[in-house]
Amino acid sequence: MSQFLKAISHGFASKLFLLLADVAGLLIIFNLVHLVRMGDTVSLSSGPIWGIALITVVTLYIMDVYRTEIPITRARLPLQTFLAVPVAAVLTALFVYALGVNSFLSIFGRGVMPTAFFLFSLWAASLRWWLTSINQQFGDKLHWYLLMEPTLAKRLQDDLDDKLAGDSQYVDIADVPAALACFPAELDVKKNAVIVGDMSKLDEILVRQISDLRFRGMRVFSYSAFYERYWSRIPVMQLSKTWFLQASGFERIYDQVGLRFQRVLDVLISSVGIVLLSPLLLLLVLLVRLTSPGAAIYKQQRVGLNGRLFTLYKFRSMVVDAERDGPVWSQKNDPRVTSFGKFLRATRLDELPQLLNIFKGQMSLIGPRPERPEFVASLRERIPHYDLRHLVAPGLTGWAQVMYSYTSSVDEAARKLEYDLYYIKNHSIQLDFAILIKTASLVLRRMGR
């Protein structure tokens, strides 16, 4: 079994496996749904079913979900697939209407096709989730050459994950002969990769050598691009002065159509959420009051979009006068947290009153978590580019929240900023969807403890 898993974890074999599994899954699912809804199966000699299969796999190929390399996050490829299947379904429906519904009546009627495509999306996404795990376990590990200054190399080697990156070899970027010796002519470019700390410091001979290797198929990353690609964060402490001039992305900041659409969604989701969750909100108000003295709703000043202050609402999870000596970071196992407050924090239910902040336009459903002005004043002085997180509306949940824990120090605030910057730079529907899925997963796991 392990030999089979190792075989399908490599390039073409994994793509072929996905293709065959998609076609087989689609045919089986359509037949099962057709049997339940219509009482019989679809003949495999039927032209329409193969036409649907062809449109589906071509659409998935065009939407780039047959790439089986380790994605930006483990969930990225399954999420892309889950969003690509509805596109295939729409194209199939257009194909059906173009050729005439009568030719596809049994496949198209009584909800067969919508149900089948929904189930197929679950199948295809789960398949890619599984194959990504197989890639991480059985795929070839790369040997990384780190061409950079010692301080950068130290941090990168501390961060390297053996399951993901394999082994590494550090060479000071100033030591040109040693760097050139790393790249013999017979080097297997498929099993080696390069991370360069500062591209501007590369010697001209090294530039030619690494360029030749890249054109032969070796992976070459800048320091920040490696972090962005493999760990979904951007190392803010190591960004050059010109990085922001060269980096792509950041469309969310100035996309007015997207911002208006997001605002409409925020109003709809928050208003519906307040109505539907009102019994739970009232119950939590009662439980907070019964388990500790003091008001159920806690109000606190936070820094929002463009640095504007607003009042954030939360269910109180700490004792009254928890900060009588002044603002301090919240710590793990903080003694100020009440017994019921621990449950509220673990399940994130203490954040539910912020639906009102979202409805009022002070927050969005997804974005960087808003920080307190007392901490912002200190953090912007100690962490480069900290104010960039205020270029977008703060969120009820966000990429940093699902990828990292509570902040209790400047170093941890810097790490969370790395995730926030990644989100601002790479904002997309897929990323928002990933955040919502991961948020739900975190809440459910903590409720199950």
Question: Which secondary structure elements does this structure contain, and how are they paired or packed?
Answer:
Layout: H1 2-7, H2 11-38, H3 47-62, H4 76-99, H5 105-108, H6 112-138, E1 143-148, H7 150-159, H8 162-165, E2 168-172, H9 176-181, E3 192-196, H10 204-215, E4 219-222, H11 223-231, H12 243-246, H13 256-276, H14 278-291, E5 297-303, E6 309-315, H15 339-347, H16 354-359, E7 364-366, H17 373-382, E8 395-397, H18 399-403, H19 410-426, H20 429-447
Parallel strand pairs: 1-2, 1-3, 3-4, 7-8
Antiparallel strand pairs: 5-6
> Which series of helices and strands comes N to C?
HHHHHHEHHEHEHEHHHHEEHHEHEHHH
Overall average residue pLDDT: 84
Per DSSP, the total helix count is: 20
Domain unit count: 3
Strand element count: 8
Structural class: alpha/beta
Written overview of the protein:
- This protein has helices spanning 2-7, 11-38, 47-62, 76-99, 105-108, 112-138, 150-159, 162-165, 176-181, 204-215, 223-231, 243-246, 256-276, 278-291, 339-347, 354-359, 373-382, 399-403, 410-426, 429-447, and strands at residues 143-148, 168-172, 192-196, 219-222, 297-303, 309-315, 364-366, 395-397.
- By secondary structure, it is α/β, with parallel strands linked by helices.
- It is flat and about 75 Å long.
- The strands form three sheets. The chain has a four-stranded parallel sheet with strand order 2-1-3-4, sandwiched between helices.
- It has three domains: 2-138, no CATH class; 143-231; 252-447, no CATH class.
